[in-house]
Every structure is written in structure tokens, then in C-alpha cells.
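Key result, reporting period 2: structure in, sequence out.
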């Protein structure tokens, strides 16, 4: 997450509201003057069950990086960027990671570049029949304007053999707006990568959220493998074993558990038997305890309809 405005004194409040099950890294927003709000700030979260390489993390002002294994087989270097009027320095800092052609590691960069690239900076192609001549493909974008920083970014990507995925992959074929402010819409938030990275990106979507003037970008990369199976099993079991632990549910559990069978077993067999009875009692209790009951939540159908209207108005 880029441009969070989160200062050190606010981290306790913010961290308590972030999703559980992640290891969070933070870079504080800073104040240029005593008056006014802090600027910048970044947050990066990695799921606890993902394998991350120790020591493979870095935080510089406006740049955060973490190396993780996705799908249990493929190493990825994930780099988050926030550019605030210093694009030359940021691109120079990115260069060492992009230049590092570590075998078997894919690199993907995303964030707020504050640069408008119009329909330039698309996929890089190389003509092997013509002596390796390189060219830059175009991309679709709802923002046709190119500013000075946009030209610098496109020139840098061409030099590195990288390209912008916005408006160039499944899910974002038209190059959706990524920023909606008081002065209008623009595309200034990007996902970038080389040809190897692009091959692994299944789709990308600019989300329709209304909590920020920047719209979050979600990217799906192909992974699968044992990591995904292990994660589904872990969370599936945890959800399935949640029971109804009200006073009424507790009484129902005792009744459903019943009396155990008196039988000679080994310690392992006894534990398996006991665990099975507990799970079965919880399942029955949960089923009976939840039947016909519905918790009243403040986020109801009316809230969903109103938020849908706001999203439509924002797009319009």
C-alpha cells in the first residue's frame, strides 16, 4: 500500500485494523514542515504461511521489497514503489534489483509512480531475426496524456526491457483510471515487469473502491502447487471447527459428546478417537445452534446498495 500517510505514533491504531494472518512491514510517512499532514508512507503485508527469504527485504524511502515463494515452487521479488517528485532517484534505486538477473526469481514492481504515460510504455518486443532489434509496443489507456515523468519512466523501461502491464493484460484491457481526484481522473499507478513476469500474470484488475482517491490494483500470478493446497486445507479445517459457544451451545455440545466407549486403545488411537468425537459434537452443535438464527449486522443490504451507487457515480 502506497502513500498511506501513516506516522509512527498512529501505527498501533492502524495495525489493529489490518487483516490478521499477515506479517506487516511499514515505512513511516514523514513531515516536511511542522504544519500540515505527513506525506508518503508504505505498508507491505506477507501471508504468514508463505515462505519468505530471511534477510531478503529492504526499505528505502519510497521503496519496499520482499522475496517470497508463491505456490510452494516459484520465488518472486515483490517491490512496492511510491514516487513523489523524485522519479530519477527512484528509478536509479530500482535498477540494481531489476538488473539482478538471479536465476529462477521473477520480479514484479507496483505502486504510485505519479507519472502519466498515456498509451506508451507497453510490452517490449525483440526481433531476433533482425539482429536483436528492440521495440516498444503500445498499450490501451483511458488516460492519453503523457507528462515529463511519464516520458522518463517509459525511457527507463525501454532501456531495461520492461513494460507496463496496465492496459496490456487480461482484466485491464482498456487501461482503467487508477486515480480519481478533485481535478479529474488519471492513470498514475502501475504494475511493471519483464517478459518472464508477464507470462506468469493471469490477470490484473483495477478495483472499484471509494475509500481512497487511488484505486487499488490486484494482480493474479500463476502458482498453484503444494503451497495453495496446504493453505486451503489449513484454513478450511480452521473454519469447519468453529462452534456455537453460547451457553445454549455449550449444553448442546455436552449432550452431543455423550459418553465415551470403554475400550483398550493405544495413546495414539485414544487421541484419534477423542478428536473425532469432539469434531462430531461440534458439527452437530453448530448445525443445531445456528439453525433459524441470524446475527444482525450493521453492514446490511441497504449499505451494499448505497456503496454500489457510490461506485457507479465514481466511475461516471
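The corresponding designed sequence is given below.
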Amino acid at each position: 500500500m502506497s502513500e498511506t500517510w501513516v506516522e509512527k505514533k498512529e501505527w498501533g491504531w492502524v495495525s489493529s485494523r489490518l487483516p490478521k494472518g499477515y506479517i506487516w512491514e511499514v515505512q513511516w510517512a514523514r513531515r516536511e514542515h511542522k504544519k500540515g499532514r505527513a506525506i508518503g508512507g508504505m505498508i507491505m503485508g506477507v501471508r504468514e504461511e508463505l515462505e519468505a527469504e530471511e534477510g531478503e527485504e529492504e526499505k528505502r524511502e519510497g521503496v519496499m521489497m520482499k522475496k517470497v515463494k508463491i505456490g510452494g515452487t516459484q520465488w518472486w521479488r515483490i517491490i512496492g514503489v511510491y514516487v513523489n517528485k523524485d522519479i530519477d532517484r527512484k528509478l536509479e534505486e530500482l535498477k540494481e534489483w531489476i538488473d539482478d538477473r538471479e536465476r529462477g526469481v521473477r520480479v514484479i514492481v507496483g505502486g504510485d509512480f505519479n507519472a502519466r504515460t498515456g498509451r506508451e510504455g507497453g510490452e517490449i518486443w525483440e526481433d531476433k531475426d533482425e539482429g536483436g532489434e528492440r521495440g516498444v509496443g503500445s498499450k490501451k489507456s483511458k488516460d492519453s496524456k503523457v507528462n515529463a515523468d511519464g516520458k522518463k519512466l517509459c525511457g527507463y523501461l525501454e532501456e531495461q526491457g520492461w513494460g507496463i502491464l496496465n492496459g496490456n493484460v487480461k482484466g485491464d484491457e482498456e487501461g482503467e483510471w487508477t486515480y480519481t481526484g478533485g481535478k479529474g481522473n488519471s492513470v498514475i499507478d502501475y504494475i511493471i515487469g519483464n517478459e518472464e513476469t508477464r507470462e506468469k500474470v493471469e490477470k490484473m484488475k483495477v478495483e472499484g473502491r471509494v475509500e481512497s482517491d487511488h484505486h487499488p490494483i490486484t494482480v493474479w500470478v500463476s502458482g498453484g502447487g503444494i503451497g495453495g493446497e496446504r493453505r486451503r486445507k489449513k484454513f478450511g479445517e480452521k473454519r469447519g471447527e468453529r462452534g456455537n459457544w453460547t451457553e445454549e451451545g455449550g449444553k448442546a455440545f455436552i449432550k452431543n459428546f455423550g459418553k465415551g466407549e470403554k475400550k483398550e486403545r493405544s495413546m495414539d488411537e485414544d487421541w484419534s478417537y477423542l478428536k473425532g468425537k469432539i469434531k462430531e459434537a461440534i458439527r452437530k452443535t453448530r448445525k443445531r445452534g445456528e439453525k433459524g438464527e441470524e446475527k444482525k449486522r450493521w453492514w446490511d443490504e441497504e449499505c451494499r446498495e448505497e456503496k454500489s451507487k457510490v461506485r457507479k457515480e465514481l466511475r461516471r
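Residues 267-290 form the longest helix (24 residues). The longest strand covers residues 51-60. This case is discussed further under Risks and Mitigation.
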